[in-house]
Amino acid sequence: MKHPPESPASAASAAAVGSAAARTGELPPDHTQAILETTKRVATLLKASGKPFALAGSVAAFAHGVPARFQHDTDFCIRREDAEPVAAALKEGGIELREAPEDWLVKGRDDGEDIDLIFELARRPVDTALLDRAEVRSVDSVYMPVLAPTDLMDSRLAALAEHYCDFGDLLPMARVLRERIDWPRLDRAHRDSPLADAFLYLLERLDVIGPREPREPAAPREMSP
Fold first, then answer.
1. Do residues 116 and 105 make contact, with C-beta atoms less than 8 angstroms apart?
2. How many degrees, rounded to 5, is the angle at CA 151 between CA 29 and CA 162?
3. The pLDDT of residue 213
4. What pLDDT does 169 receive?
5. Which residues pair with 97 in a beta bridge?
6. What DSSP designation does 181 have?
7. What is the pTM of this model?
């Protein structure tokens, strides 16, 4: 696990909140400090459990220096095999947990703020290698493992889909973390994913990243007789 220098500190629910805000003409409430307090409490309990974990999502981006205004939840990556001991540690610490309809996470709640304990990022299992690459950073004065910038952006690109494709949220992250992300690795990983590839093309056009490797020319299609 890397220890860099000290740094300043779900699609459906996001769409629902945004839709409600559009109908009322009001911005969703700012839960930034409340979510940070919940993040710190959960991280303290996770560290005490002795099981590996890493902060993910928008709070992880904030930990890396990306400006944020939180409205939803805080996300933590854990290994599936650690779910039971982690859940027991959080319950003992007073965190309310409940089963989720999805089989890739456990949901929790603390002081009115939602918590997601995630076993999979964009349908890819959370493993020891991912957690080992996490960087210990300060989140509102509490140190905790945070997904590395490349893994954080990788997870966001992999989650892009036709029903949720918001580049406006990704662009500030890309600008702030541009020097700390392995863009060639992401280009190779997402070259065949139309939405992720489109975002990387946008970054290239905006000079956020350098020129990408040229594509291999497509093989000509054979015409049927």
1. yes
2. 60
3. 85
4. 86
5. 108
6. S
7. 0.81
